[in-house]
Amino acid sequence: MRLYDCDHCGQPVHFDNRFCVSCGHRLAFVPERLAMHALREDEDGTWHLVAAPAYKVRFCANAAMDICNWTVAEEDPHAYCSSCRHNRLVPDTSTEAGLTQWRRIGQAQRHLFYSLLRWNLPRADREEDPQGGLVFDFLVDEIGADGAVIPARTGHENGVIAIRAAEADDLTREEVRVSMKEPYRTLLGHFRHEIGHYIWNRLVLDADRLEPFRLAFGDEREDYGAALRRHYENGPPANWQENCISAYASAHPWEDFAECFAHYVHIVDTLETARSYGMAIEPRGHEDLAAVVVFNPYAARDAEQLVAAWIPFSLALNGIHRSMGVPDFYPFILTPTVVAKLEFIHALIRAGSR
Description:
This protein has helices at about 95-120, 170-180, 185-205, 210-215, 225-235, 240-245, 255-275, 305-325, 335-350; strands at about 5, 10-15, 25-30, 35-40, 45-50, 50-60, 70-75, 85-90, 135-140, 140-145, 150, 155, 160-165, 280, 290. The chain is an alpha+beta fold.
């Protein structure tokens, strides 16, 4: 994620900022420009960009509840921004708990859409594609007859991405992470994994790239339900780390792809952050671990270029986390087989960018 500057005073501003802490100007992310901008309100109640007074915008309808800080172009008929307009079922905003969940979910969702916009990947909504357009349902847990909580399920089917709203609560998500023996579990990770399934539909299945996909990930025609049951009952294969980025990725080729897609986005977006802050890794006596991000990760020439920069940064950040007594920042291993899968995804994204 880039670091931005206030158009009015030059103060550094971040992707989620609403106001400039220096000059007080209202801030918003303008998706058509892929940038944060300072805004000024006109006498008629409309808004324009300080840096481009002729460019008129209005705030996403979700800004009224401080859920979204994105704008909609003046001529756009939609009330919601290009991220929020994909939502169908949302948490109950009449309760403080629901509103808090919605704000956290929306923050992660906009971070996802930043990457989709940077690559200009397919993201048709249900108006544009009634059968397979991208839509989000943020589901609440149910209570059984015996009073037990029945957790909502996170998943994807034909363009519909379901996210368990309760995972916006840190305690719930951490309990699930520990019970599932997962080293990493975040809202943003859920979004990036599930969008991977949607991207598979658009850029592999619809684009007739099944044969190269099978060479990289395996045959997706394996019974999916049976594969998941086997995974949950028996666990991953003993050698799963040689071929997969995570234990869950070993369950089925579809999950392997979605996990690798999520990690590709993790790597690219984090390296862009490192580049934006001018970070460099230069450990004395370990010159082979030196790294500086001097390229645009969203336009990397190949996955190898990303991985060469990523490994030193992730090792350094893991060390910093251990020094603070918290879990590793990136508890995963990028084997040659996994890098080859990331290379497939890199080529897929390059081909699918419209």
